[in-house]
TrEMBL record:
InterPro entries: Glypican (IPR001863), Glypican_CS (IPR019803). The keyword Mitochondrion does not apply. GO terms for biological process: cell migration; positive regulation of canonical Wnt signaling pathway; regulation of protein localization to membrane. The keyword Glycoprotein applies. It comes from Ceuthmochares aereus. GO terms for cellular component: cell surface; extracellular region; plasma membrane; side of membrane. Coiled coil: none annotated. Cell surface proteoglycan. This is GPC5 protein. It is found in: Cell membrane. The gene is Gpc5.
Amino acid sequence: DLQICQQRAPTCCTKKMEESYQAAVRRERNQSIQALNFELKYMIVGHITAFQEAFESLLRSAENRTSSLFETAYRPMAKEAAAPVKELFTDISLYILGAETTVESAVLRFFDSLFPLVYSRLINPGITDLSEDYTECLRLTRQDVNPFGRYSKNMVTELSKYLWASRMLSQALSLGIEVINTTEHAALTKECSKALVKMQYCPHCQGLTLIRPCVGYCLNVMRGCLASVSELDAHWREYISTLEYLTNEKAASHDLEIAVTGIRNSINEAILHAQLNGPQLSATVDKVCGQPRQQERDLSSDNIVPVKEVTEAQTFVMAHTSLNNKRREFINYMKRSRTFYASIAERLCDGDLVMRDSSTCWNGEDVV
């Protein structure tokens, strides 16, 4: 009643043993593919981790520096500005990680929230009644009166240009893990299971437990079993090329670091621009939103504090160099894995599975 290991010679196998062998080859094949995938997946996960850690560290530092700008130069609004600043950097982080948002919406939302604070705390510091309606009116007016001049749009342009490659690279790395995980658990067909049993375990039914498959025979069986996986070859090669392009784009735009750390200076310039155009802004806002209640107050010159941007020659040099070295190491490894899915059958037939340097091997029917 044997279905797979049918031979004329006497046998010690039963149909139940054949079923056990089929379960064994499925388990062994999954383990073999997982072992092959492990190093590749380890490298990608490691790069994802290094990339995210470096970027989060960069954002944290930039957020702290931006917060310190308000605490040192624009103290009247520092406390209220904390939430918009945090939201801006959270939005940037989410954008990098692939969230359905844009750099433009994040930056413009920040300036929408900032304008009521700048208007009521710096341009007209006597305002006492800042109702929700008045605040909302100021937010909406920001788009029309453009209090921050070209600085808000410049910030959108700079950040969009340099964050794009980081966002794409983050998504591409996650896709790589997804592909590897999918191939790891690819189900074997019944025909494949039978072919593997015939190759690996049918010799056992004749007591030939030490004989191993011939190399050519193993390759034929494995290629048949992994035909669907090897179809990924062309797509995987294209994927590696895309990774290489994105990694080079990201390395070329180390201006990403400059752009993110320059957020503080952009915001400072934008606020100064608004203050310098305070009278015109007040006249326009009064027409649109009405005049809020004010109290008499001595307007000191403390309200405008030009802040010189601190030159940060060394702050990110070490982190950037380290990340660049990791990028190079990573992409060189990934380029070597270009033929990963084309050569998977050869790699599975390598090692202990087949008989090498021996005069005898199993060809599926007999010892040759």
